[in-house]
């Protein structure tokens, strides 16, 4: 197998291949140097500020997404990386007007209506411009929806399921989000199937500041309905009023789905030496939702990944394998970037040695690495863990369940995948809200996040041993 | 003086006056009974739900404010209280469209603009319907505004002063709010005087969820300009972009100031016995801002005050002095309710024995009483403190600085005033935002809040000794 070269041979080969470049090695001193250089650099934080302040929101197909492609490509060219723009055709959904009022309910005083704060879900269709008015039916589970199927036709279904912040506080933010977001992704389609006029979900997130959390919903192309997320407060209000009697809502949502747009994955290579044809991906996604500047979702992932190349360039370190920074397009509402890359490389996936993606933000401490590898390879990472321990990031945890956003197709086809482990207890307070902004990222958190990605990417790119393929159950 | 009756005479007089009613007394058993009855009652919380869920926002002049007057009056009539609607003429300001974009700044990519989240301040005038476009000038103090006076003409002034949450966390929420809100109340008028096209303030509050905090601004009638609060995040964005170069904003605000409207203070009396002509006010303000249902500002104050009468009625206790529940109108943008009451009673202010107002919400523990009395009367309250100690509310703190919202004119004319002491460290997260909603109030907090008001009101209404007039420095 092409991975099984003894260390010495590798070193000699690399020295020959790289000319004046420094020898590649996973020795502790080199790992420490990379880690410390990343910890000392403001460069990713400056790129984060550029991306969020100058470009702002970056929903697929928007001027912001196009500007972000240019901005990242330009920054990577400046570093001397080999930049490729990989064309990706993306959905182009545009938010419109969005407002709602409770116009009738038991106990409503004369002339009084209650405003409901909501935001359309990506993929929502539009109401008539003048709005639609219908009774709201509140359900708390898919089972309850099915039980009340006969009541759904012509009504507005509200899935009133609270995000489990307690789980998030106990370190289970991901599973809590998985449970909550199921109602957002699948609920509206189920309501549509039963003839609902529109569907609402309670915002999926832990904050209690009347904050809307948008996100994608998966509607059947032939059965699209208006769909929106109401704030937790508004969901609770509607649920309380529903206990008093029927509640009628007037709903106005005017989003548009335009023809698919041309966009790009930004790919920037730091070419390897003797194994240059093998690739270690380090990545984040460049698109964001439109309500905010997408600082933690996922400008941090992109700018920390960019920082990996900046760190190695600054240290004049050249890896054996090619380290490839990818800024994926369209993670949020289509996943076309990851799918396009997979499609383009599917004939030679054995050359995709490993892939890293950061998509859990850096709004908390990064404490290690989540590895989509088989058990027998875990021990290979002890030197990496030792190198990351001094910055509190020495944890290596194996992952048995597939699910790394843009890497999904690669993982399913066997590419080992790695995610940084981040304290995400606060992540879903801001995720997909208007509040996912630059100020939520502490410079120190982004530094250690970058240090983990840089040390990990380098380590993978210079490993002598094979790390096998993704766990069997990823297929 | 009419206060100086010995205890025995008072008891005899009260027994004679009250017929079948229970003897009035400040003995420990009676105080404990009142405290415990309030702690056991859900009634105020149910009124809070009615007020926030059924009526909702209650800005002066709105249908909600009118409905709230009816709702409170009806609930108090049901209790058997003597209800009076005191006419109050109130300002009638109505929010319109509000949006803003940064349309030019250094480093702006082609076709990109940044949305700014803001909300008009009460009293703001309107921009042209199509908006106004001007350069933003960022200042951090009144001094800086004066220094840069020559740059202000035709520009949009942004006061970028952060709320000091650290002070709030240390128990100094009020002073922190005082510092921050000075820019909101006075800043726009100062900017207008220098010829500004519009004025923006950074939202005054501690939350970091891109939340707007509205509030009143005091503009010269002849020099009104559009004025709005931007979120903390947007203020920081504009400040950062301003460091790169000039920032131009397009601003649309279309509020309207309509002719003054007819409204009311709701007054509900529990008549006293031998001193029925003397009054102890217990109150909150009925109006709220329009963005939320004003749960903590100030439905808690009103419903806890209502709960005082409910508690005493339930216990069949009749006070010596009349206990008067007042739901003030127009605290938020005019103070006309308090002023009207003061005007109506100014000839006989010595009969206003004491006045309580709750206007710091109940989004935290109530731990005692803030008393606007002179030092020599402090010791009179030891029995009250002893009665409140078991519910963690035994603190009595004297207040030397005037400032109890609707009581201001009464205080200035010598009426001793009392405020509940509440942990307000979170209060300004929600204050004047869309998130000041029912769910922010814990039932237990409202119970202990009501218990403090009820025990205090009763204690004041049955005191044998005089408590003097408000501190000299209140005048």
TrEMBL record, chains A, B:
Domain (Peptidase M28) ranges: 265-456
GO molecular function: carboxypeptidase activity; metal ion binding; metallodipeptidase activity
Keyword Iron listed: no
Stretches assigned to coiled coil: none
PANTHER family, per database record: CARBOXYPEPTIDASE Q, PROTEASE FAMILY M28 PLASMA GLUTAMATE CARBOXYPEPTIDASE-RELATED
The keyword Zinc belongs to this UniProt entry's keyword annotation: yes
GO cellular component: extracellular region; lysosome
GO biological process: proteolysis
SUPFAM superfamilies on file: Zn-dependent exopeptidases
Organism whose genome encodes this protein: Pseudoduganella lurida
Pfam families named in the record: Peptidase_M28
Subunit architecture: Homodimer. The monomeric form is inactive while the homodimer is active.
Keywords: Carboxypeptidase, Endoplasmic reticulum, Glycoprotein, Golgi apparatus, Hydrolase, Lysosome, Metal-binding, Metalloprotease, Protease, Secreted, Signal, Zinc, Zymogen
Range of residues in the leader sequence: 1-23
Subcellular location: Endoplasmic reticulum; Golgi apparatus; Lysosome; Secreted
Name the UniProt record assigns to this protein: Carboxypeptidase Q
């Amino acid at each position: 197998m092409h991975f099984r070269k003894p260390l010495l041979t590798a070193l000699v080969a690399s020295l020959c291949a790289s000319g004046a470049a420094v020898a590649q090695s996973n020795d502790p001193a080199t790992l420490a140097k990379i880690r410390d250089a990343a910890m000392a650099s403001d460069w990713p934080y400056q790129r984060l500020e550029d991306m969020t302040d100058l470009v702002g929101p970056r929903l697929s197909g928007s001027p912001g997404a196009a500007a972000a492609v240019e901005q990242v490509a330009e920054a990577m060219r400046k570093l001397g990386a080999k930049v490729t723009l990989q064309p990706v055709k993306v959905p182009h959904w545009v938010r419109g007007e969005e407002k709602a009022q409770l116009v009738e309910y038991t106990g409503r005083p004369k002339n009084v209506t209650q405003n409901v704060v909501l935001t359309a879900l990506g993929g929502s269709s539009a109401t008539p411009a003048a709005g639609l008015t219908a009774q709201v039916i509140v359900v708390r589970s898919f089972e309850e929806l099915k039980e009340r199927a006969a009541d759904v036709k012509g009504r507005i279904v509200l899935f009133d399921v609270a995000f489990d912040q307690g789980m998030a506080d106990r370190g289970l933010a991901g599973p809590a989000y998985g449970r909550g977001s199921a109602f957002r992704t699948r609920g509206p389609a189920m309501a549509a199937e039963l003839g609902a006029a529109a569907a609402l979900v309670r915002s999926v997130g832990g904050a209690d500041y009347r904050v809307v959390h948008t996100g994608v919903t998966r509607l059947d192309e032939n059965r699209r309905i208006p769909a929106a997320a109401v704030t937790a407060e508004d969901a609770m209000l509607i649920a309380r009023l529903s206990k008093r009697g029927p509640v009628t809502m007037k709903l106005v949502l005017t989003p548009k789905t335009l023809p698919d747009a041309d966009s790009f994955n930004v790919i920037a290579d730091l070419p390897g030496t003797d194994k240059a044809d093998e690739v270690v991906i380090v990545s984040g996604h460049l698109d964001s939702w439109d309500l905010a500047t997408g600082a933690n979702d996922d400008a941090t992932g992109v700018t920390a990944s960019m920082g990996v190349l900046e760190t190695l360039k600054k240290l004049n370190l050249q890896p054996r394998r090619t380290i490839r920074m990818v800024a994926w397009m369209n993670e949020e509402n289509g996943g076309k970037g990851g799918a396009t890359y997979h499609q383009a490389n599917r004939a030679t996936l054995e050359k995709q040695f490993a892939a890293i993606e950061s998509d859990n933000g850096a709004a908390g401490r990064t404490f290690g690495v989540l590895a989509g590898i088989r058990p027998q390879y875990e021990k290979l990472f002890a030197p990496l863990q030792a190198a990351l321990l001094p910055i509190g990031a020495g944890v290596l945890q194996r992952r048995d369940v597939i699910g790394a956003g843009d890497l999904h197709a690669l993982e399913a086809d066997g590419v080992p995948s790695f995610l940084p482990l981040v304290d995400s207890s606060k992540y879903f307070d801001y995720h997909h809200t208007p509040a996912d902004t630059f100020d939520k990222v502490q410079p120190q958190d982004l530094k250690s996040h970058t240090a983990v990605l840089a040390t990990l990417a380098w380590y993978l790119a210079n490993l002598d041993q094979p790390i096998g393929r993704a766990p069997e159950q990823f297929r």
